[in-house]
Amino acid sequence: DQQVKQNSPSLSVQEGRISILNCDYTNSMFDYFLWYKKYPAEGPTFLISISSIKDKNEDGRFTVFLNKSAKHLSLHIVPSQPGDSAVYFCAALYSGTYKYIFGTGTRLKVLA
Amino acid sequence: DTAVSQTPKYLVTQMGNDKSIKCEQNLGHDTMYWYKQDSKKFLKIMFSYNNKELIINETVPNRFSPKSPDKAHLNLHINSLELGDSAVYFCASRHDGEQYFGPGTRLTVT
After folding, report:
1. Strands A62-67 and A56-59, sheet pairing
2. Which residue of chain A is at minimal alpha-carbon distance from B102?
3. Are B26 and B1 contacting, i.e. CB atoms less than 8 angstroms apart?
4. Quick check: A104 pLDDT over 70?
5. A40, B2, B69, B110: which sits with the fewest CB atoms below 10 Å from its CB?
6. B86 contacts chain A (CB < 8 A)
7. Gap between the Cα atoms of A108 and A97, Å rounded
8. CA distances from A81 to A9, A58, A84, A110, B23 (A)
């Protein structure tokens, strides 16, 4: 039973345009969400997070949006750069626990 | 000065063997994790320790045994390795809701 889903396994975007990566979750107990970026042969690196008390968090080119009623979050990257090409994982956490649930990842390719 | 390090990076071994993967973090974090990333690239939590105490123990075969000698180290020992154990294993530490991952250990069981 996959509680966190990333339904798009891959995404290609032209350099300079917006990349939108989506994530859906089923457990309404989740109250903290994170995005990680992963390059080949490396561990995931933390990108940005959002608490369920917010609906938007921004950090430079990266913005995460949270729609609690739809149990949906998205990561926007503007403008996209070739160095952003990686696999992006969303993760969810119920802050009363230490247990993170990860999605299956979306491979983003930014074309120069 | 790697924050979370794992050794070895690659491990090739035969079925039935016993092997260990080591993890160390120099971030001073209290909580550490082991994850398994299988062939479908799904990152699944296995264990978590907080200050040397086991706090998460997912449905993992008891051939897998974590050991935390101190809060900077979390090792994973695997007995009687099986083909299905082939995967990439990631160690991570946690602080303020964020996790910091090691580079992974690719385990191949032949």
Report:
1. antiparallel
2. A43
3. yes
4. yes
5. A40
6. no
7. 30
8. 19, 17, 5, 6, 33
C-alpha to C-alpha distance for A72 and A63, rounded to whole angstroms: 14
DSSP result, B55-98: EEE-S--TTEEEEEEETTEEEEEE-S--GGG-EEEEEEEEETTE
Nearest residue to A30 (alpha-carbon basis) of A81, A87, A101, A82: A101
End-to-end CA distance of chain B: 33
Tallying the residues shown for chain B, one arrives at 110
Residue A56's beta-bridge partner residues? A65
CB B94 within 8 A of CB B29: yes
With an 8 Å Cβ cutoff, is B45 touching chain A?
yes
Backbone angles phi, psi at B84, to 5 degrees: -70, -5
Residue A3: closest C-alpha in chain B? B44
Model confidence at A63, in pLDDT bands (50, 70, 90)?
Answer: very high
In A, which residues are within 8 Å of B97 by CB distance? 32, 34, 49, 93, 95
Encoded tokens for A83: 């160095």
A89-100 tens-digit pLDDT? 999 998 878 899
